[in-house]
Design brief:
By secondary structure, the chain is of the alpha/beta class. The protein has three domains: 84 residues, Winged helix-like DNA-binding domain superfamily/Winged helix DNA-binding domain (Arc Repressor Mutant, subunit A), CATH 1.10.10.10; 89 residues, D-Maltodextrin-Binding Protein, domain 2 (3-Layer(aba) Sandwich), CATH 3.40.190.10; 108 residues, D-Maltodextrin-Binding Protein, domain 2 (3-Layer(aba) Sandwich), CATH 3.40.190.10. The chain contains ten helices and ten strands. It has an eight-stranded mixed β-sheet with strand order 4-3-5-10-6-9-7-8, sandwiched between helices. The chain has a two-stranded antiparallel sheet with strand order 1-2. Helix 1 packs across helix 3. The model has no long low-confidence stretch (mean pLDDT 90).
Length: 296
Amino acid sequence: MRKLPPLGTLRAFEAAARRLSFKLAAKELHVTPTAISHQIRQLESYLKVDLFERHTRRVSLTAAGHLLLPSIEEGFDTFERAIATVQRRTAPNVATLTSTVAFTAKRLAPRAGAFRALHPHWSLRLDASDDVFDLDVEADTAVRYGNGYYPGLVVEPLFEDRFAPVCSPNLKLLSEQDLRTSVLIHFEWGAQVRDDERACVWRHWFERAHLKGIDAQAGLSFTDEIHAIHATIAGQGVGLLSLTLVAEELASGVLIQPFSLTLPSFRYDLVYSERAAERPATQLLRDWLKSEFRIS
């Protein structure tokens, strides 16, 4: 028989130690801070050692707390993976694919029916999020947008994104000089990639086009890429947009690309955990994505 303290005390300790806050741990576990404090006192009594140093407005781990935390975190991670595996094996056939909000909306959602047509006994779950998911637990595979470096995961390149000015044909943009009197539409990149040259902005395009004397920051700015696309479709201005995300609009003529100059940007990659490589869902998604985007 294992000699272990109550599971609730370990959950309270792990949450409080990870966040260094009884209040935040209580919020995460949907209990009161008093309950968290009581659980940790119970664990400390069981272990006969203090795990936290209590300060006026904060807590910090003792040496014993630092020693205990990694093993507790590893244990809960193992529980989570095992439970997810059991649920996956007993649940109906569901293949879960995660990607960015923009890519899911513009390129995956319109193709979702094709997956069902190929695999009528499977359901496709598209989880649109710009957060990074745990691919051991939360999804079978992902299409990620970035530099292609994802340690610990299997990475299969799909394609490189490119950016160019696009606009409604109603604007009748005839030459690059017309950009001097056009409203520029901007998508604001996140802080984590803003300084990367692959985060394309109008300044980069003007430099490559050798156009000077244009305010590269003026116009309309959006923090959401989909909103920038919608404003461009509505004829509000000229957007420097991902050609991947506006491919359907360009093909239908809703938008036009008036100039041939394009800028290279980040890469789209098919990504999955090594543990998930043999899952039927992962294999089906992998084959489907490579077929949809014509990757050998």
